[in-house]
């Protein structure tokens, strides 16, 4: 018999009734320190009073009107994003997958409007994750996500992660775009070196290919800059954002330069819910808090503190851990045991972490986690690792 909920997830036997900052609390009152943050979503922690206020204030006014009308909250969010980034224009979505889908469509439309409708090839990298739509799984290309789903959307070629020579050989003036995460999330917290991101930008400039960055997981302050590509000093033509931008409310966006978006006229794309007042009221508040130099400086300071403590943890448990990787508060512990074992042992210490590919356990705390909570998290990881040695 099939469960009432379509059984596509392998869920832990845990449920949470409420949350407070970096803590998720079960119905019996047990408090779990949350280093998953709903997979890099709850950037300001659970039940953040400012976000609760933004949501409830809007909830008392109007929830949904559709894009048949002006939506001032959507306009405000878009203007904040444009004001803080490379982008000239924004389409608001409900999720990262929808953002990826539009990014792909925008690339195709761009070349079609330029009189090159056959210029559809998008180069991607192994280990990528762009969501679960038929387009997004075709883009990522992994067997795990695509098996059984029939003929895939054509036009993607997957290259080995970080292999600039392979990219240089593959890219040409027939390439529509290069698409990647500046720091792979699901792929195992794998940062693209700043220097390599600059080379990718240069290859795109040389061939005219658009650079599409997926910052759904690594964006919104996670790496200590508002967007991860800022570390490399380059800008994309198109960028996908989601997860953290809603702080827990479903929200995503595609950001683009005027040139990259030039094919997208009235009627070329749409979404019923996308950019609705509730989501945009919350997203605006998240942007106001996170797109702030002092806030981002704290993310950097805490990221460095966390990393230093994790290096000590790895040194203390050489049979369990291999190394620490990541940027800011997007951290990964490469494991010598199965990462799911580490995640399970951490549950026993009332600590939430998230497994990823490449033998990595992800640590993606709320960006406003305190120093004390970081110390506590490492103490719990230490106890969890000790049980795995025993
Ligand atoms: C989670 C994720 C997505 C998909 O976002 P959804 O909101 O789950 O649709 C796309 N790209 C990256 C890098 C992600 O981490």
Automatic annotation (TrEMBL):
<comment type="subunit">
    <text>Homodimer.</text>
</comment>
<dbReference type="InterPro" id="IPR050103">
    <property type="entry name" value="Class-III_PLP-dep_AT"/>
</dbReference>
<keyword id="KW-0808">Transferase</keyword>
<comment type="similarity">
    <text>Belongs to the class-III pyridoxal-phosphate-dependent aminotransferase family. ArgD subfamily.</text>
</comment>
<dbReference type="InterPro" id="IPR005814">
    <property type="entry name" value="Aminotrans_3"/>
</dbReference>
<keyword id="KW-0963">Cytoplasm</keyword>
<dbReference type="GO" id="GO:0042802">
    <property type="term" value="F:identical protein binding"/>
</dbReference>
<feature type="modified residue" description="N6-(pyridoxal phosphate)lysine">
    <location>
        <position position="243"/>
    </location>
</feature>
<dbReference type="InterPro" id="IPR049704">
    <property type="entry name" value="Aminotrans_3_PPA_site"/>
</dbReference>
<dbReference type="InterPro" id="IPR015424">
    <property type="entry name" value="PyrdxlP-dep_Trfase"/>
</dbReference>
<keyword id="KW-0032">Aminotransferase</keyword>
<dbReference type="InterPro" id="IPR015421">
    <property type="entry name" value="PyrdxlP-dep_Trfase_major"/>
</dbReference>
<feature type="binding site">
    <location>
        <position position="272"/>
    </location>
    <ligand>
        <name>pyridoxal 5'-phosphate</name>
    </ligand>
</feature>
<feature type="binding site">
    <location>
        <position position="271"/>
    </location>
    <ligand>
        <name>N(2)-acetyl-L-ornithine</name>
    </ligand>
</feature>
<dbReference type="GO" id="GO:0030170">
    <property type="term" value="F:pyridoxal phosphate binding"/>
</dbReference>
<dbReference type="GO" id="GO:0003992">
    <property type="term" value="F:N2-acetyl-L-ornithine:2-oxoglutarate 5-aminotransferase activity"/>
</dbReference>
<keyword id="KW-0663">Pyridoxal phosphate</keyword>
<feature type="binding site">
    <location>
        <position position="132"/>
    </location>
    <ligand>
        <name>N(2)-acetyl-L-ornithine</name>
    </ligand>
</feature>
<keyword id="KW-0028">Amino-acid biosynthesis</keyword>
<dbReference type="InterPro" id="IPR004636">
    <property type="entry name" value="AcOrn/SuccOrn_fam"/>
</dbReference>
<keyword id="KW-0055">Arginine biosynthesis</keyword>
<dbReference type="Pfam" id="PF00202">
    <property type="entry name" value="Aminotran_3"/>
</dbReference>
<dbReference type="GO" id="GO:0005737">
    <property type="term" value="C:cytoplasm"/>
</dbReference>
<dbReference type="GO" id="GO:0006526">
    <property type="term" value="P:L-arginine biosynthetic process"/>
</dbReference>
<comment type="pathway">
    <text>Amino-acid biosynthesis; L-arginine biosynthesis; N(2)-acetyl-L-ornithine from L-glutamate: step 4/4.</text>
</comment>
<feature type="binding site">
    <location>
        <begin position="96"/>
        <end position="97"/>
    </location>
    <ligand>
        <name>pyridoxal 5'-phosphate</name>
    </ligand>
</feature>
<protein>
    <recommendedName>
        <fullName>Acetylornithine aminotransferase</fullName>
        <ecNumber>2.6.1.11</ecNumber>
    </recommendedName>
</protein>
<feature type="binding site">
    <location>
        <begin position="214"/>
        <end position="217"/>
    </location>
    <ligand>
        <name>pyridoxal 5'-phosphate</name>
    </ligand>
</feature>
<feature type="binding site">
    <location>
        <position position="129"/>
    </location>
    <ligand>
        <name>pyridoxal 5'-phosphate</name>
    </ligand>
</feature>
<dbReference type="InterPro" id="IPR015422">
    <property type="entry name" value="PyrdxlP-dep_Trfase_small"/>
</dbReference>
